[in-house]
Structures are given as structure tokens and as C-alpha cells.
Known about the structure:
Blueprint lengths: L2 H6 L27 H13 L1 E3 H9 L5 H16 L3 E7 L8 E7 L1 H9 L12 H5 L1 H21 L2 E5 L11 E6 L8 E8 L12 H12 L3 H7 L5 E6 L2 H14 L5 E5 H7 L22
Parallel strand pairs: 6-7, 7-8
Antiparallel strand pairs: 1-3, 2-3, 4-5, 5-6
Amino acid sequence: xxxHLCRLSAKPENxxxxxxxxxxxxxxxxxxxxxxxxxxVLELLAEFFCxxxxxxxxxxxxxxxxxxxxxxxxxxxxxxHRDGFLYRAPHLDVGHERGGITYVYGLSAKGVAHAFxxxxxxxxxxxxxEHSLRTLDHELEITRFHVALHRLCSARxxxxxxxxxxxxxxxxxxxxxxxxxxxxxxxxxxxxxETERAKLGNYRDGEPQILRKIRRYYDxxxxxxxxxxxxxxxxxxxxxQRTDARREGLLTELRExxxxxxxxxxxxxxxxxxxxGAIFKTPKDDASVPFSFLTL
Length: 296
């Protein structure tokens, strides 16, 4: 296992605010004993960084949730927010059939301190801040991918580790994760995650931002600098895009300029439907040769 992931993760993980986002001015002590649901909610936010009400309810129940489940979780979140353990921010979910406005929750500074003090912090444990709230859709997409990977690894007996902080090095991914089959530890890989929701943009010298990122990963691969900063030399870069058309356009660019199997491209719809499927395409291979986490 890469030493940086090992050092920052005590256990496998498959086991800036607007006025409405601020914690209540009331201050309370630590959670009283005998509140397993409140404790589990805090543990989930320490592991997954930011979640919506229904996300939390589904992770708690591990099944399709009912209206009663959602109401119960909503009450728990309201209490934890009132007592200063959580931040929350309103979020417009365009895919929500009724209403559309929901809340996204994350740990406050008090919640993070509680996680570290009580031994359930992970390498994704951090507070929601101004930067995170400005890019809330992007942060939620990272969380969706994390939750999907967590469920896959739990169901298939794979070991994984996830890191979502202290990522600003020569490359600055959205997350770093490691996946291994305990039966084949020699086939484990480290992955950098890049979630690209916007169209090609932020051009510099005629080159869009996504291609500048790709170039850095391409030049960084198998380098001494990578080993010094991350503890490994080789990796894969998972690039999640919104549509098949955007993925095909980027694959065409990469085949001409950065033709390497390190780049694994997928779409939001593909990984949400079956993250364990053969959903990844690389610029090095024909479209008929997709890859999967289960063919490590």
C-alpha cells in the first residue's frame, strides 16, 4: 500500500458559509451517551465530507428509504445543526421531482474536533468552507462517486482507501483512492479522481483547463517527483464527465496528444448505474475494450 495512504488512513473506508450555512450560535457539549444515530450521522459525514438528507438516510438504512426514514433523519440533522456539530447549505437539485430545494450537510469545526477526539476521523474529514460551498455541485459529485465506490467495495469484498484533503501537490486531484482485491494484492492500483462537470473552458494559450490537467498527469507519471509527493510512481486517472459526447470528444483529443492507458474516462450516468461495470474507456484502446475496477 502506498505509504501516504497508509499514514493518512487509520482504517479501510469500506467499513465558508452563507447565513443559512452557519452553525447555531448556541453551543452545546459533546454528544451525550446513548445516541447511536447521531453518532453514526457524524461518522458518515467524517467519511463522505458532504451529504444530502436522503443520502444520509440511505446510508443509515442500507435500503430504499421511506418518507418516515427521511423525516427521522431530518430531525436528527436539525438537532446536530442546532448544537453546532454541522454546517448546512441550501441546494437546488434540478433532478428532484418535488420542490427541488434541499440541504447539504457537512461537519463544522466543532464536528471535526469531535471526530478527531473520538477516533472516527478519516482522510476525508474536514469542514465545509467558503470554497466548498461555491463549488457545491462539484463537491456532491465527488461524494456520489465515493459512495458508489464504497458500496461496490463493500459488496465485492475489495479493500479501498480514500483521501480527500491535503491534495495540493504538482497535480491537484479531486480525490485520491486505492483499490485492492485481498486475493490479488499485487494488482492494486492508486487512482486520481477528476470530476469534470463544465464544458471545455478556461483557455490558456489555446488550451482548455482539462487538457492542462491531463498534461500534468502525463508528464508526472512514473516520475521521482510523484514518488516523493505521493509515495508511488504509477497511477490511473479517472475522469468523470457529464455526457458520452463530452467523453468521446476528450478521448479524441487524448488519442492525438496523450495516448496512454493511465487515463480512464467514464460518465456520471455510467458510474451511477454500475460503477463495477466495464464503464471506463482509455485513449490507448479501441472503444470496444472498456475497463472495470473488477478487472484489476
